[in-house]
Write a structure and sequence with these properties.
globular, binds coenzyme A, seven-stranded mixed beta sheet, 24% helix, 3 helices, 173 residues
Length: 173
């Protein structure tokens, strides 16, 4: 199944907001959230995704059709390294439990080599199981899990080697 990610253009912001509404409605099972007068869940960092170079918004597509979205955010660590993180990750119901989320996660992790931290809220059991399994398989078990002091959740820390170069073909004369 051809799976791709493509950067969300500012012109497509309304499409991202529609998907965000579905995502935040699902997340409202864990956080108290309500909609504004237009019926939208407010995502306060939305505008930043087209202004701040450390934020990267992507649509997920299956055979060209929108199947979800991923928001990546780069954070500067105290030591000066960049740490990549997943701000939000969403796959539409129709496409779930088919391995699509995992394949998309691998595409995203390959695209941003280096240090990663992915934080998942404790109550989001499925999200936690998903990231635990995906990161375990991606790193071959070389990841570190810890709990953040002021927040009820798990943080997974690991490194992405980036996309592996293609296997060299046979030598020709
Ligand atoms: C979490 C989410 C992205 C998973 O997407 P998906 O495409 O269904 O996931 P995959 O099919 O690629 O699953 C990969 C692995 O994750 C785990 N997993 C996924 N969904 C699961 C579920 N409902 N229950 C238990 N484990 C689950 C499994 O280990 C699975 O591997 P397996 O099928 O070999 O057992 C999707 O359910 C979603 O968008 N949820 C709402 C938003 C959210 O919670 N995002 C994550 C936190 S930011």
């Amino acid at each position: 199944m051809p799976l791709t990610i493509d950067r969300v253009d500012l012109k497509q912001r309304a499409v991202l907001q529609s998907l965000m509404n579905m995502y935040l409605h699902e997340m409202s099972a864990f956080n108290e959230m309500g909609v504004d007068d237009d019926g939208n869940f407010e995502y306060k960092h939305m505008s930043c995704y087209w202004v701040e170079p450390e934020r990267h918004p992507f649509f997920v597509r299956v055979k060209g059709k929108i199947a979800g979205f991923v928001l990546v955010r780069d954070i500067d660590s105290i030591s000066g390294d960049t740490i990549h993180s997943i701000a939000e990750f969403f796959i539409l119901n129709t496409y779930r439990r088919l391995g699509i989320g995992e394949e998309i996660a691998r595409i995203v992790l390959n695209r941003f080599p280096g240090k990663w931290q992915i934080a998942v809220q404790e109550e989001n059991r499925v999200g936690r199981l998903f990231w635990k399994r995906v990161i375990w398989r991606y790193t071959g078990g070389k990841s570190h899990e810890f709990r953040s002091g002021d927040w009820d959740g798990t943080v997974f820390e690991f490194r992405s080697p980036g996309a592996k170069p293609p296997e060299p073909g046979p030598l020709s004369e």
